[in-house]
Amino acid sequence: METGRAWIEIDRKALGHNVAVLRSLLPKGCELMPALKANAYGHGAVLVGRELNKMGVRAFCVACVEEGVELRKGGVEGEILILGYTHPLQFPLLEQYDLCQTVVDYAYARELQEYGERVAVHIGIDTGMHRLGERCEQVDRLCQICDMQNLVIKGAYTHLCVADSMAENDRIYTRQQAEAFYHTIGVLRNRGYQIPRIHLLASSGVLFHPELGGDYARVGIALYGACGDMEGYRQAVQPPLRPVLSLKARIASVRELQPGESAGYGLAYVAEKPARLAVLAIGYGDGLPRVLSGGTGEVLVGGRRAPIAGRICMDQTLVDVTNVDGVQPGDVAVLIGSQEGETVTVEEMATRAGTIPNEILSRLGGRLGRK
């Protein structure tokens, strides 16, 4: 990114390390099904998907049909499962691009059946999250779904909604969800229905409940090494997962301010003493949270921390580099990642912004180059 204004760098070695670590945690017979939704959590879906193909990964999941089509057009091979809703007018894309669709409930199964063409599906089974999937208690309806001739059933899955919690009540709830799922699968198989592949583990499930098994593990945030600073995560994974993404921006200009002068929208920054501000060519239009304004967030310049000064703009961000020597236009600032031994993690940024790493990463904009 020799000429970029702002960009993302993906660490191939870190990605490979995380794949190896996660594979070592999987129960016997379980394979990775990485989540490449939301542009692979901001990392670049096609870029990451191709790398994972090289590592032998042959199953993926995405949120919507458009994401699946993008992967196919980008040359990503293997099974691609759409976890969310696809409009009936888009059903032809499922066959055209060899995509597998989630049955989000019984009524949706009827729509897939009435489409009139054979469609590969995984049946969503609701075991307590009450988001998508036919309820596990509705066994007769699940059997009716299995009887639909146009549905080619490739698998079934559920989602564990509190698998990341160490609270005893939540651990009990997770076990109850797993028991309900396996009971439902057992009933369907005992009635003669073929359910080739089943899956219930996502990132937290792999780290904290690998004994719950399954044929796939839908790893998302763990794959990208951004699980947060929870003590449980650090204890669960040895060796530790590594962050895959760095976010960098070019310094466009360096400005000198005298005491009492202000800068930025609303003149929100006021220099209390002679100050030097660097203008970064990145803003909330690129996904940098505006809530980090006014010194809430920090970036790295010359290997030192520099607070964000004033309000973050759509395309520019001011940072105070008064205490950083030798800053010049064209230098590179690091917003997520390391520079000269100092590090700003996405977990830190998320904590300062009052959110989670998943949201920070998935909102990184499309105009950021990815390398």
Explain this structure:
By secondary structure, the chain is an alpha/beta fold. It contains 12 helices and 20 strands. Strands 1, 11, 14, 15, 16, 17, 18, 19 and 20 form a 9-stranded mixed beta sheet that branches. A hairpin with a 2-residue loop joins β15 and β16 (304-307). The termini are close together. The mean pLDDT is 96.
Helix content: 25-40%
Mean pLDDT: 96
Rg computed from alpha carbons, rounded to a whole number of angstroms:
24 Å
Largest sheet: 9 strands, mixed
Instruction: Give the number of DSSP strands.
Output: 20
Strand content: 25-35%
Question: What structural class should be given to the helix and strand makeup?
Answer: alpha/beta
Contiguous uncertain segments of 5+ residues: none
Number of helices: 12
What does the overall shape look like? Answer: elongated
Distance between the termini: 7 Å
